[in-house]
Amino acid sequence: MADYSKVQEEDMVNDEMLKRYLEFSLGEETYAVPLLKVREVIARPETTPVPFTPKHFLGIMNLRGQVISVIDLRSKLNINRKKENDEDSAVIIVDLDPIFLGVVVDSVNNVLTLNLSEVNETPKIDSTKNTEYIEGVYRKDEHLILLLNIAQVLDIEDRKAIQSSIKKAA
Amino acid sequence: MDELEKELKLSFLEESIQLLDDTEQAFLDLERSDDNTSLLDRIFRLAHNIKGTSRAVGFGDVAEFTHELENMLLMLKVGQLTVDTEIVTLLLKCNDYLRGLIEALQEDMEATFDSSRIIAQIHSTVNQNVGLAKSAEKNEETANATSESTTDSEVKKVDVFAAADPSESSLESNLNSDFDLGAINKLKEFDNERDEEAKKQQAIAEEVEKYTTQIDEEDLDNISTSGDNASNSKVEEVSLDHQQKVLNQVMKEAVQSDDDHSHDDPSDKSGTSKKKQIDETIRVKLREVELLNNFVGELVILQTVLNQHKSLVESELIQKTIGQLDKLSKEIQAISMGLRMVPIKQTFQKMQRIVRDTSNALGKKVNLVINGETTEVDKTVLEHLGDPLVHIIRNAVDHGLESTPQERVVSGKPETGTIELNAYHEGNTLVIEISDDGLGIDAEVIKKKAIEKGIISEGSTLSEEEIINLIFLPSFSTKAKVSEISGRGVGMDVVKTNIQGLSGEVRVRTKKGEGSTFRVVLPLTLAIIEGMIVELSGNKFVFPMTQVQEILQPKRESITRVTGLGDMLTLRGEVMPVFKLGDALGVEHQFENVWEGIVAIVRNNGQSYAVFVDEISRLQQVVIKKLGEEIKRKKGMIDSAILGDGLPSIIIDLNELFSTDLLSVKNTQIKNQVGAA
């Protein structure tokens, strides 16, 4: 229950149990990131590959004169693409203070307002994937939405270098 | 503290720093020049300015100290004290102290200071140097008479500055006891001058409307009457500028004291005072200039995209417009980059102080010759330039010049050593040369030391240039003793690192017995670099042109494959390793053989190497874009640039990328040599 109480505490400070998330799809799965971390959503831009970076690191892009790194969440999380072509795919620009990061997703769906008391802790089993970047699980109608901590998706060395402002979810 | 007062104080503090630079320079000149009269006039005016203004804006502590300083300067001016090294040292100390006060006030405007210690030092120095009361008694009456007129002018002055200070009378009491008649006459002259000045100010105060034109006339007057050089007239302008400010302040105060509570349209007044200055310069926040430069950078990138795709548009009008727009963008870029450029003068002047202090401490005689101090350089570059320059200059005085003046005479040189500081633009770079006419660097000594320290091996066959450049390695100091000035062995490698941090280069040329020249080459600005865009199987990378010496397509016969070393290129008799860019970056090469592609020749620390690439697409200026830390920590990838196609590209620091390759080549070479021996 450690995770859960922490999440709760954080938001109690905000005097709100309601928090807004941006919901998006990766393959057949649905994820969400805190809306406050999202700077903007853009169509998939052209990127320049960077040598010696992992496969999920697509390269760098030009966002109106600013150079930003772009990662592909699907390949990072080993999720099969929805379609063969990426026409639908979008890039969410996330603010990881002090850097911005472009995150490629299959599609951006909508903005969710979640009551944090309904967020469940990440199940410990049920996945071969590394789950440290899943902050929690939210049940919406019949399917589950995984709440993602983007900062955790980056490499450990990257994170060290970036000094993420996002708290590690225990 | 209301906003107006705060603003006045802030502007005083900022200007004081400037003035203190001027006075420091003047103090140093004092020691060097024979005719001190005009210099002392100038110094006195500067000190007077600081005193007057500091009092007017309410920094009593500063005013009090400057007052003491002014007294001493007055004694120098009237010939009561003579300029010597001790006095100049004291003056410089006062200058430093004053700078300290100003800087502390910049941090905290409410700060108070106790200057009694340094004031006591002034007094004791003055007393030692001035013969005890000579003909004071005889001339007491005359002195009294003069002091009356002095008081008169003081009163007028006080009127103008609207801030009476009882301690002002201490000047007169000094006069009574210490000054002889000649001094008093001189003082009288000076007072007359000051009278006039005061009258001028009053006249100005009466006719505020015509103020600007009057200032101009007086400016002209000052210039023509003084008949001095340009720099002097500049000081006149500065001092008038100050008077103008003080006057504005006085007027504001007058208005406020008339009716303390109703702020009688102060905004209007500050408006007029600002307007007057706008004609010449305005102060802009550096941050805003940087922001502007960023946007202009983007503009230029977009313009490049437009230019490259101009032919796709059918309309001639649009094509023409794009062409015109291009010209405009370039103009805007040039201007906006120019905003960051400042003359190197200030930094150079600081060097004079360094030379003075260092040479005095070492008992050497040194003359510093400065050329090209109006050369402009990017503010950020300039800020980081100070430390390395200080290191090089100190080094030149300590290691470069002969240990004693006698030693110089023996080798047929003038007793006084000369250090020359030159700055000039060369293409898109700023070149700074620091030369001394001292001993020169003895390659043999360096070599011996390097072997001793295990930096190179006994049998190594480094060229003389390579050996001399070993002084830039960490922990390399040949000076036998560790001194206060230099010789801790941290100097030159810091210089090298700092300058490389600015994408610059430093090299030494030396001739034994004749002296050495340190040549520092820096980019004019850090925001834009001259880049060479290279291609590797469709991937584009940018090499900084500062690192690339030349580009060529090697002939087949100039490439030799050496076991353990890979390909070697023979260029004009020099053999150098060829590194494949693709190997270092994990990218496939389009060509397998070096002679099918192109090589860029890079020279680092006297060691040359060739970098093999598939193709060079173009040379262009690129605007540097910062990379996130997640990429920056990768070796050799320092920054990025957005190219003509709108896509970002990585800027490669070749020396960093190939540092390990270079090292291994060197080691192999040494092994081979040892083996052969």
Chart the SSEs and their pairings.
The complex is a heterodimer of chains A (170) and B (677).
Chain A (H helix, E strand, L loop, with lengths): L1 H12 L4 E9 L2 E6 L3 E6 L13 E7 L2 E7 H4 L13 E7 L2 E7 L1 E9 L3 E2 L13 E7 L2 E6 L7 H7 L8
Parallel strand pairs in A: 2-11, 5-7
Antiparallel strand pairs in A: 1-2, 1-8, 3-6, 4-5, 6-7, 9-10, 10-11
Chain B lengths: L2 H30 L4 H21 L2 H18 L7 H23 L8 H14 L10 H22 L8 H9 L2 H26 L4 H16 L3 H29 L7 H13 L7 H23 L7 H23 L2 E3 L1 H18 L3 E6 L4 E3 H22 L4 H6 L6 E10 L2 E8 L6 H10 L11 H5 L22 H11 L3 E7 L3 E9 L4 E9 L2 E6 L3 E5 L6 E4 L3 E6 L2 E7 H5 L12 E7 L2 E7 L1 E11 L3 H4 L4 E6 L5 E5 L1 H4 L1 H18 L1
Parallel strand pairs in B: 2-4, 9-18, 13-15
Antiparallel strand pairs in B: 1-3, 4-5, 5-7, 6-7, 8-9, 8-16, 10-14, 11-12, 12-13, 14-15, 16-17, 17-18
Walkthrough of the structure:
The complex is a heterodimer of chains A (170) and B (677). With 170 residues, chain A is mainly beta. Chain A has a single domain (2-162), classed as CheA-289, Domain 4 (OB fold (Dihydrolipoamide Acetyltransferase, E2P)). Chain A has three helices and eleven strands. Chain A has helices spanning 2-13, 73-76, 156-162; strands at 18-26, 29-34, 38-43, 57-63, 66-72, 90-96, 99-105, 107-115, 119-120, 134-140, 143-148. In chain A, a hairpin with a 2-residue loop joins strand 10 (134-140) and strand 11 (143-148). The radius of gyration of chain A is 16 Å and the shape is globular. Chain B has 677 residues and is of the alpha+beta class. Chain B folds into six domains: 1-130, HPT domain (Four Helix Bundle (Hemerythrin (Met), subunit A), Up-down Bundle); 133-191, no CATH class; 207-274, no CATH class; 286-338; 341-523, Heat Shock Protein 90; 529-676, OB fold (Dihydrolipoamide Acetyltransferase, E2P). Helices cover 55% and strands 18% of the residues of chain B. A six-stranded mixed beta sheet of chain B has the order 10-14-15-13-12-11. Residues 132-181, 208-239, 253-278 and 480-489 of chain B have low confidence and may be disordered. Classes of the chains: A mainly beta (170), B alpha+beta (677).
